[in-house]
Automatic annotation (TrEMBL):
It comes from the Eukaryota. Pfam families: Na_K-ATPase (PF00287). GO terms for cellular component: apical plasma membrane; basolateral plasma membrane; intercalated disc; lateral plasma membrane; organelle membrane; sodium:potassium-exchanging ATPase complex; sperm flagellum; T-tubule. This is Sodium/potassium-transporting ATPase subunit beta. It is a single-pass type II membrane protein. This is the non-catalytic component of the active enzyme, which catalyzes the hydrolysis of ATP coupled with the exchange of Na(+) and K(+) ions across the plasma membrane. Its main location: membrane. It comes from Pelodiscus sinensis (Chinese softshell turtle).
């Protein structure tokens, strides 16, 4: 007997690995290296952020036929029916670029790079049908507990090595309603056939006092009940990035 599998259906959901956590700008060897005094040295990072965030401009989200104005604070999953095209394409939630504040590129076109305070934008890769489950609050490190929300998948960035903590300095997070993570109403994702204009929620992270003229390694982690980490996949649930900022 033959079985047909719908191209719209999430396949093997019981075996789907947690999505990767990645950063923009996409960088070679996950290293961000530049000189504050040389705009050309960080031009590629600015260009990468500009290109990626273009889809988050308000004029790109104008159509009420495609986009929903969902809650502007974290909320529960939005289920949009079956994973088929019986009702045509599914609407998607808008995500305002302005929510990224200092890292939106609106007020500061250099995303902090000209001042040696670089921004990165963090995203959870799309997986058809995946519903991330927020962590139990007692399982979170103390620094993440401060802004716990039951509808947010929290992200936290810190020094890869404990002895480098003073080299990282303060870290600012910019996301929906000020939460450092991904709100649930953007999930599940119905796939590119049903949601071709889907915008995944973003979190911007700004490092405001990195030590200059030395390499500083940072790890960013996503916390959740169904988020795992793997030594074989360095982007599963987390990523590392190395900063090397020259003062002159």
């Amino acid at each position: 007997m033959l079985f047909t599998i719908s191209e719209f259906e999430p396949k093997y959901q019981d075996r789907v690995a947690p999505p990767g956590l990645t950063l923009i700008p996409q960088v070679l060897k996950t290293e961000i290296s530049f000189s504050i005094s040389d705009p050309q040295s960080y031009g590629q990072y600015v260009e990468g952020l500009n290109k990626f965030l273009k889809n988050y401009d308000s004029d790109q989200q104008a159509s009420d036929m495609i986009f929903d104005t969902c809650a502007d604070k974290p909320d529960d999953y939005i289920m949009r029916g079956a994973f088929n095209n019986a009702q045509g394409q599914k609407k998607v939630c808008r995500f305002k670029r302005e929510w990224l504040e200092n890292c939106s590129g609106i007020a500061d076109s250099s995303y902090g790079y000209r001042d040696g305070k670089p921004c990165v934008v963090v995203k959870l890769n799309r997986v058809l049908g995946f519903k991330p489950k927020p962590p139990l609050n007692e399982s979170l490190p103390a620094e993440v507990m401060g802004k716990y929300n039951q509808y947010v998948m929290p992200v936290h960035c810190s020094a890869k090595k404990e002895e480098d903590a003073d080299k990282v300095g303060p870290v600012e997070y910019y996301g929906m309603a000020g939460y450092a993570g991904f709100p649930l109403q953007y999930y599940p994702y119905y796939g590119k056939l049903l949601q071709p204009k889907y915008l995944q929620p973003l979190l911007a992270v700004q490092f405001t006092n990195l030590t200059y003229d030395t390499e500083v390694r940072v790890e960013c982690k996503l916390y959740g009940e169904n988020i795992g980490y793997s030594d074989k996949d360095r982007f599963q649930g987390r990523f590392e990035v190395k900063f090397d900022i020259k003062s002159s």
